[in-house]
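job 3f2a | input accepted
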Amino acid sequence: MKTVEELIAHVLHIDASNITDATSPNDIENWDSFNGLVLVTELEKEFNVSFSLDEVVAVKNVRDIKTSLKKHGVNIA
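job 3f2a | predicted structure (77 res):
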């Protein structure tokens, strides 16, 4: 299973070492609305979850993604 950072790095074509919990779409040029939707799809597939529209809209940074995954019972290392 990929980490959240690895998955984000893969989708956005960036180095995972550049991603922190505070990383947001404002920090990464490739993190536009289209890639945001791709990221949601990849997260749902990788972690076998389904996010609500409210959860997707509420995400402001990587920490928010991890919080949403934890609410779905995903163990984030």
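job 3f2a | Residues 48 and 70 are 12 Å apart (CA to CA).
job 3f2a | closed
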